[in-house]
Design brief:
By secondary structure, the protein is of the alpha/beta class. It has helices at residues 41-48, 53-73, 84-87, 92-103, 112-126, 130-133, 168-175, 185-203, 220-227, 239-251, 254-261, 271-285, 297-308, 319-333, 338-354, 356-359, 363-375, 387-396, 405-417, 427-430, 434-452, 484-493, 495-501; strands spanning 4-11, 15-23, 29-38, 77-82, 108-109, 137-143, 148-154, 157-164, 210-216, 235-238, 289-292, 461-469, 472-479, 504-511. Strands 3-2-1-4-5 form a 5-stranded mixed sheet, with helices on both faces. It is globular.
Length: 513
């Protein structure tokens, strides 16, 4: 494999970054150039809800500067991504088109879920001690300008992730007018942050003993500087060292941080909110050390790109496994019948694989089907009647790290539609674009008959073989009880499968003695 140069541009709320990576013959990326520029996008867009013309000019000037650097290196491929400042702007589509016309860059705006997905990849792959740390309770704080993402690992498994509107810049923008009205601004900040963190503690998993805490975000490099560490290297900081920085921020005005410590004026005011978030969490977990890895969103994007390219460096673990575990934790939280959803998930996979030559779907679609099976009963936690409609709302407001909003919507629709006698008449289905209608129909058809095979929720099927014949999809089941109810349910639910997959499903039962 020949060497290749790839650029990643990350337009954040207060900083735009360009990293140019060289991917070597073994598919491993190495940074050859890193450029950053302070911008003011988030400082205004969070308050006004739009990106104004002055900010647009600033972004375009920055991107044209990055273009010159990319041309200098003759970079072959460039990713240009934006996060919360664009995500929350009401005029983002118009702004993106203006930027495309003026710079040639087509910006991809990441969902919060995908942004955190790439950040998690960067931490997992760049921190050599990460696999050992997550053997025991580990809390990860991804502190962005717009929000805070808290992720929990234990016993080497992904357990939980929750997003809160506690970003450093957003807090500052909301409370900045209080600075001139009180002499105890830090106390107000503390109360504001503690209130949201209390809400987090209500929903976090219980019974975890934390042994490690990891924090990262765009501003944490300045914490390293203030503690005397190299901002461009990973480090650990003791609680005492952190509190020394915290106390310095408490007594130092942002203007003095800029004047004396050379911290950019856009950054200086948002360091105290970051410090308060970390201080609260350090006290909550009761640990004396915090890990501060030197990672970025750009690192996660390039590592994921290398994993997907032919001959590229593969990730040390399959991120899809975290998605499955996350969905199972959601199902557990909503008291779903574990034995039933395990059966339906397994049946969905077997039906999908056996019909692969006809269904025309991808491995990603198979993952969405598995997630739909795991979550298909979570609405019963809200209401037994019409549970699928309740599940639709629950799923749409559940964040599964690694799924974009379109994929999450697909899962929610499949779960909403699978019990419907005629999904084609559903308003939500009719409003879909044609390509998505096809995918939703196919996934719904498979989930319908998989669920029908365990209609009684008694797991009467103990073994199953699915075989594709020219004229039918034959499902042979070894069972331990009468299957009249399941057979009736299968007959009433199999029509959609024949319509959208193009072959008739046929089920046969063999009673075990």
């Amino acid at each position: 494999m020949a060497k290749k140069l790839v650029g990643v541009i990350d337009i954040g709320s207060v900083t735009a970054r360009l990293k140019i990576f060289e991917i070597n013959s073994k598919g491993k990326p190495k940074v050859v150039e890193a450029v950053r520029k302070i911008i003011s996008v988030g400082t205004k867009s969070y308050g006004t809800g739009v990106i104004d013309p002055e900010q647009l000019d600033e972004i375009c000037d920055c991107l044209n500067h990055f273009r010159n650097k990319l041309n200098e290196y003759q970079v072959e491929k460039t990713f240009c991504i934006a996060t919360s400042a664009f995500r929350d702007a009401g005029n983002r589509d118009v702004v993106i088109e203006q930027i495309r016309i003026r710079t040639g860059f087509l910006i991809e705006v990441l969902d919060n879920s995908m942004e955190r997905f790439y950040q998690n990849i960067a931490v997992r792959e760049i921190m050599p001690e990460f696999p050992e740390l997550i053997n025991e309770g580990t809390m990860i704080l991804d502190i962005g300008a717009s929000s805070l993402q808290v992720t929990v690992y234990d016993k080497s498994d992904f357990i939980f992730s929750q997003n809160m509107v506690l970003g450093s810049l957003r807090i500052y923008e909301m409370l900045s007018d209080l600075q001139n009205r009180t002499t105890h601004y830090e106390d107000v900040l503390q109360e504001f942050i503690a209130q949201d963190l209390e809400d987090y503690h209500l929903v976090e998993p219980k019974g975890i003993t934390y042994r490690s805490i990891i924090a990262f975000g765009g501003e944490l490099g300045y914490f390293k500087i203030l503690s005397g560490s190299d901002p461009n290297r990973s480090c650990t900081m003791t609680k005492a060292e952190f509190l020394k920085v915290y106390e310095y921020l408490i007594k130092t005005r942002p203007s003095d941080l800029t004047l004396n410590d050379k911290i950019p004026s856009y950054i200086a005011p948002i360091l105290l909110p970051v410090a308060l978030i970390i201080k609260n969490m350090l006290e909550y977990v009761g640990l004396e050390t915090i890990y501060l890895p030197h990672v970025s969103l750009s690192d996660g994007i390039i590592l994921y790109y290398c994993d997907k390219m032919s001959g590229g460096r593969k990730l040390s673990s399959r991120m899809e496994d975290d998605l499955i575990r996350s969905a199972r934790n959601v199902a557990k939280r909503y008291k779903s019948n574990k034995k039933h959803i395990d059966f339906v998930e397994k049946a969905c996979c077997e039906l999908f694989d056996a019909s692969a030559k006809l269904n025309g779907m991808t491995s990603r679609d198979r993952l969405l089907l598995r997630l739909s099976a795991i979550l298909h009963e979570c609405g019963k936690f809200v209401h037994a009647t019409g549970h699928n409609d309740a599940a639709y709302s629950l799923i749409r407001y559940t964040e599964l790290i690694g799924l974009d909003s379109d994929e999450l919507e697909t899962i929610a629709l499949v779960v909403r539609l699978y019990p419907k006698q005629n999904p084609y008449e559903n308003y939500y289905y009719q409003s879909l674009p044609a390509a998505k209608k096809v995918i939703v129909s196919k996934l719904t058809a498979i989930l319908r008959i998989a669920d029908a095979m365990d209609s009684s929720h008694k797991q009467k099927v103990k073994d199953m073989t699915v075989t594709l014949y020219p004229d039918r999809l034959h499902i042979s089941c070894d069972v331990v009880a009468d299957m009249s109810f399941e057979e009736w349910s299968f007959e009433h639910r199999s029509g959609l499968f024949e319509e959208v997959i193009g072959i008739k499903p046929q089920i046969r039962f063999r009673r075990q003695l």
